């Protein structure tokens, strides 16, 4: 029987974005007090990277990844890597692609850019990841767009933060992807799904996380990052997520 390592349980700060905007230090402190070891950064809320890092240090949490954007990476990769270095992250993540790229040719172009950025990240001592949504599993001209990214990138430089909700929602099986692309999923967005298909707090929904987590060696997962896009009570959602990951066995 296995469990999630406590020091690899995190939360994407997007989940608590509304309270981060008004009280970032208090929010980070609360997340640390709940038991989170790590966070995924979703913007700096007007603070410098140095100030944001200091707030995380005060709260006793460390950033394992940061979400930047396709446009920001295209504009100035070096600046994004410098921000990531200050934050202390291991993974630099592009969380979505522009709708204008939603073709096989567009995703082929994105894969080539990811390769470039992955090489730059590796040179800076970090790793590059792409985070999926359901649209990335659309089939265009008979090809699943996500597959273009996986097949046209080198695992030495480009891997994936797999959002478990957004791969399951369009009808795909994470385990099948672990089998096809072993070791390429070092981070999970652990997001649960209600019976009606909407977002749900961890452990209160329908996704069989133990089945997915049991393939930890095959997936390559290291970081388990709680996320909920529209929580009613963000800190309650956060507490439930940490408690679920801290106690689930597989």
From TrEMBL:
InterPro entries: IolE/XylAMocC-like, Xyl_isomerase-like_sf, Xyl_isomerase-like_TIM-brl. Gene3D superfamilies: Divalent-metal-dependent TIM barrel enzymes. Residues 42-245 form the Xylose isomerase-like TIM barrel domain. Keywords: Isomerase. GO terms for molecular function: isomerase activity. Transmembrane segments: none annotated. SUPFAM superfamilies: Xylose isomerase-like (SSF51658). Pfam families: AP_endonuc_2. This is Sugar phosphate isomerase.
């Amino acid at each position: 029987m296995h469990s999630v390592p406590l020091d690899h349980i995190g939360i994407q700060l997007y989940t608590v974005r509304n309270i981060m905007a008004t009280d970032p230090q208090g929010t980070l402190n609360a997340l640390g007090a709940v038991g989170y070891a790590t966070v995924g950064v979703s913007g700096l809320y007007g603070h410098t990277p140095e100030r944001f890092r200091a707030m995380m240090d005060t709260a006793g949490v460390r950033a394992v990844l940061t979400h930047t954007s396709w446009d920001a990476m295209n504009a100035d990769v070096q600046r994004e890597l410098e921000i990531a270095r200050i934050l202390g992250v291991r993974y630099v993540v592009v969380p979505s692609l522009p709708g204008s790229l939603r073709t096989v040719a567009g995703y082929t172009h994105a894969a080539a850019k990811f390769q470039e950025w992955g090489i730059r990240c590796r040179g800076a001592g970090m790793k590059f990841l792409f985070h999926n949504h359901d649209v990335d599993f659309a089939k265009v001209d008979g090809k699943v767009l996500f597959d273009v990214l996986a097949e046209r990138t080198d695992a030495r430089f480009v891997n994936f933060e797999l959002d478990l909700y957004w791969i399951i929602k369009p009808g795909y099986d994470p385990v099948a992807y672990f089998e096809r692309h072993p070791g390429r999923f070092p981070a999970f967005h652990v997001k649960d799904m209600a019976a009606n298909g909407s977002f749900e707090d961890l452990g209160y929904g329908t996704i069989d996380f133990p089945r997915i987590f049991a393939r930890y060696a095959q997936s390559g997962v290291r970081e388990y990052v709680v996320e909920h896009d529209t929580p009613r009570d963000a800190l309650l959602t956060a507490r439930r997520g940490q408690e679920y990951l801290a106690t689930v066995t597989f």
